[in-house]
Design a protein that fits this description.
With 269 residues, this protein is an alpha+beta fold. The protein folds into two domains: 66 residues, Winged helix-like DNA-binding domain superfamily/Winged helix DNA-binding domain (Arc Repressor Mutant, subunit A); 170 residues, Beta-Lactamase (2-Layer Sandwich), CATH 3.30.450. It contains nine helices and eight strands. The strands form two sheets. A six-stranded antiparallel sheet has the order 5-4-3-8-7-6. A two-stranded antiparallel ribbon has the order 1-2. Strand 1 and strand 2 form a beta hairpin.
Length: 269
């Protein structure tokens, strides 16, 4: 097969990867074919090739396809050079100067959050949320801040059943109904919190930053030893985190307010 005949297949393969990247979770091959206007036989063949190269993973029990580790590796290579981290770094620095606790920037990656930046406050201990670490989104303040701004259908696709809810210390939501309540609390409060669900004795407060479409592209969180902040001090930290994500949203061309609801409010389900 000549190089010219490979180009359409390459283009279609890239379209599949891009399509999967834009979904809230894995999808059936038939749905991919319909969305892209491609013959099912072509899609199955391309999915097989993409799976062989690690860009796609097949979930046989669900009869669906999702992004593979090779796509993740490309994504993390991008984030190391992306403007998101560059835009956020000085904002995190000012946030840490103000609250005197460590802060970090994270993005949603499937059902996990990936930490891109950490700005450690002077004298503070290192945290489990180091750069490059991934943690379950439903347990972290960062993940909850982002999930709370996604449509309900997308959250449901990410967490279809109880097997999607991993635990670190036996705490946190164990099913979709409990997660919905957590996310409802985030929207009511205006920021997300977690208390000992990632690391016992530590708590976090987080808010999401949105791009020009209103999509929550990242979250900023402050983590502190629980004993170091009185209960009535959490809201003040949340306000300062919201100011930071509002500025980051503005720099990303977003609405400029991290606490505002999604452009399409989560539908009841």
């Amino acid at each position: 097969m000549g190089n010219s005949s490979r180009v359409p297949a390459l283009r279609h393969g890239l379209h599949i990867v891009r399509h999967l990247a834009g979904l809230g979770g894995p999808a059936p091959a038939s749905a991919i074919a319909e969305a892209l206007g491609l013959p099912r036989s072509t899609v199955y063949h391309l999915l097989s090739e993409l799976e062989r190269e690690g860009f796609v993973v097949h979930l046989p029990e669900e009869r669906r396809y999702g992004l593979g580790i090779a796509a993740y590796e490309l994504g993390t290579a991008y984030t190391r050079q992306a403007p998101l981290a560059r835009l956020a770094r000085p904002l995190l620095g000012r946030l840490v100067d103000d609250v005197r606790h460590s802060a970090h920037l994270a993005v949603l990656h499937g059902r996990e959050v990936l930490y891109l930046l950490e700005e450690r406050a002077p004298g503070r201990a290192s945290l489990v949320t180091d750069v490059g670490v991934r943690l379950p989104a439903h347990l972290t303040a960062s993940g909850r801040a982002v999930l709370a701004r996604l449509p309900a259908a997308q959250v449901r696709a990410l967490f279809p059943d109880a097997t999607a809810f991993t635990h670190r210390h036996g705490t946190g939501p164990r099913g979709l109904s409990e997660l919905r309540q957590v996310l409802s609390d985030v929207r009511r409060r205006g920021h997300a919190v977690e208390d000992g669900e990632v690391t016992p004795g530590f708590a976090s407060v987080a808010a999401a930053a949105a791009d020009h479409t209103g999509y929550p592209v990242a979250a900023v969180a402050v983590t502190f030893a629980r004993e170091a902040v009185a209960a009535d001090g959490w809201a003040a930290i949340g306000d300062r985190v919201n100011e930071t994500t509002a500025e980051l949203s503005r720099r990303l061309g977003g609405p400029g307010t991290a606490a505002s609801p999604p452009s399409s409010p989560p539908a009841a389900s």
